[in-house]
Design goal:
By secondary structure, the chain is mainly alpha-helical. Helices cover about 80% and strands about 0% of the residues. The longest helix has about 30 residues. The radius of gyration is 19 Å and the shape is globular.
């Protein structure tokens, strides 16, 4: 695949704006765990407190993800993405303001991150469902490669940038940077248009949820793989992202922790 072919999807205006918005989104998303961890530790120097906030974000996302898929099939996906990015940006902006001003309390961060996780449950299916609508079928492979390369690069670079920002400006300002990426992405998505119109899903929301759950539970390899990764992610998040930042704060520092996360992404 030559360079011209590889970059061909970027000549499609709507995909180009979508791709730019997604890369901006991802840059903030890969910075967020670093920023949030040290923001929580500034409020309460406790791994338990950090675990509570992380759980407040991830549990609603898991619970509502299936519902988010149903919503993405019923409402305009661009509308979900634009408003979802705005809400996510505002929640992170509120968390950033509380940390910067020294007014943050643990319960406030728990509530804000729970809202953020719930919004993410709607954003993820809408984002992935919109992507194939924006490029011709013959360019899907190249578009997937572009997204994968961009995601991989940001997974390496963003944690290090977040570590630097935490050290130089503070964790509240690192959260503010994450907030800004959500809001910038929302603006970029205003330039995206979906060719044609897709029909909304039929039936009731409960019917669709039951059907989706039946397909999931009825496909053995699928639920076994999902369960296995749930356990692995729980162990990884619990041991790595909950215990790691407090230990790093006392030893290698915030920048060192950013380097470690980037090194893991390189691996």
């Amino acid at each position: 695949m030559d360079t011209r072919t590889a970059l061909a999807p970027l000549r499609v205006a709507s995909f180009r704006w979508y791709f730019t918005a997604k890369m901006v989104d991802l840059s903030g998303s890969f910075m967020a765990p670093i920023a949030l961890a040290f923001a929580v530790l500034e409020v309460s120097d406790s791994p338990t407190a950090l675990g509570i906030v992380l759980a407040a974000n991830s549990i609603p996302m898991v619970i509502f993800l299936l519902l988010g898929g149903v919503i993405a099939d019923r409402l305009p996906r661009l509308l979900i993405l634009r408003w979802g990015n705005v809400v996510a940006g505002l929640t992170q902006a509120a968390a950033a303001a509380l940390v910067i001003t020294g007014e943050a309390e643990l319960w406030m961060l728990v509530v804000l991150e729970a809202v953020n996780g719930t919004v993410a449950a709607a954003l993820m299916p809408a984002m992935e469902g919109l992507f194939p609508q924006l490029v011709p079928r013959g360019m899907l492979q190249e578009a997937n490669v572009l997204q994968s390369m961009g995601r991989s690069a940001l997974r390496v670079l963003a944690p290090t940038a977040a570590g630097w920002l935490v050290v130089t400006a503070g964790p509240g300002w690192a959260l503010a940077a994450d907030s800004l990426t959500w809001l910038v992405a929302a603006v970029l998505l205003l330039r995206v248009s979906v060719p044609g119109r897709s029909e909304a899903a039929g039936g009731s929301v409960l019917t669709d949820l039951r059907e989706g759950w039946a397909v999931f539970t009825g496909t053995t390899w699928l639920w076994v793989v999902v369960l296995a990764f749930c356990l692995l992610n729980a162990i990884h998040t619990g041991a790595w992202f909950t215990l790691g930042p407090p230990h790093a704060k006392q030893t290698i520092g915030e920048t060192g922790w950013g380097y470690l996360i980037s090194a893991e992404a390189i691996g």
